[in-house]
Amino acid sequence: MSKQIRSLASWIFLFLKSPKVALSIPINGCFIYPGASITLARNSRLVVNGKIEVHADAAIYVREGSRLELGSNVCVHKGAIIDTSYGSIKIGSNVSVNPYTILYGHGGLSIGSNVRIAAHCVFIPANHSFKDKKIPIMNQEVTAKGIVVEDNVWFGARCVVLDGVRVCHSSVVGAGSVISRDVPSYHVSKGVPATNFPY
């Protein structure tokens, strides 16, 4: 069976499993590997604007009322998770989401084009409040400002990107860094918490 036929069969199965989901996908060039998981809730929207690959054991969750948009030539590798978390995620073209990376969409996650995200990274566009010591943290306010990643950015392995951050174009995030503030263009950001250095 050709890749194209397997791809078409995968999308037909997906559509039949989620008949009320708005789905806008050019079939040619998309390939969902056996073992990949795509879950679309009611009233959610998945838009794919070109070729994508979703590898075995990768999981995509588009929650109720949320939206996921993927550009052309997006590759979601083994064990990676993309979860809109009742928010939205937009990913540009030529983006790799490498093994076991997690992308959440709570307050909105926007990733530009030509971005490389190494293995075991986590992007979290939400934060828990812990101002009131009398209330369990899990019951306090959740803020969600969102994360923006511009074009041409490279994230090393095991990065954590926190809510409210903008990572500007042509920047590099060192392996193992925790990004809690904006990263300017043409800078390397590294450390815990990360510090920015021009390159």
Return the CATH class: Mainly Beta
From the spread of the alpha carbons, the general shape counts as: globular
**What's the number of extended β-strand segments?**
25
CATH homology group: Hexapeptide repeat proteins
Chain-averaged pLDDT? 89
What distance separates the N and C termini?
48 Å
Describe the model.
- The chain is 8% helix and 39% strand.
- The protein has 199 residues and is mainly β.
- It has one domain: UDP N-Acetylglucosamine Acyltransferase, domain 1.
- Strand 24 and strand 25 form a beta hairpin.
List keywords for this structure.
single chain, 199 residues, mainly beta, UDP N-Acetylglucosamine Acyltransferase, domain 1, nine-stranded mixed beta sheet, seven-stranded parallel beta sheet, 25 strands, 8% helix, 39% strand
List the helices and strands and how they pair.
Blueprint: H1 3-17, E1 22-24, E2 31-32, E3 37-40, E4 45-48, E5 52-54, E6 59-62, E7 67-70, E8 74-76, E9 81-83, E10 88-91, E11 95-97, E12 102-104, E13 109-111, E14 115-117, E15 122-124, E16 127-128, E17 142-143, E18 147-149, E19 154-155, E20 160-162, E21 166-167, E22 172-173, E23 178-179, E24 187-191, E25 194-198
Parallel strand pairs: 1-4, 2-5, 3-6, 4-7, 5-8, 6-9, 7-10, 8-11, 9-12, 10-13, 11-14, 12-15, 13-18, 14-19, 15-20, 18-21, 19-22, 20-23, 22-24
Antiparallel strand pairs: 16-17, 24-25
Brief summary of the model shown:
The protein has one helix at residues 3-17, and strands spanning 22-24, 31-32, 37-40, 45-48, 52-54, 59-62, 67-70, 74-76, 81-83, 88-91, 95-97, 102-104, 109-111, 115-117, 122-124, 127-128, 142-143, 147-149, 154-155, 160-162, 166-167, 172-173, 178-179, 187-191, 194-198.
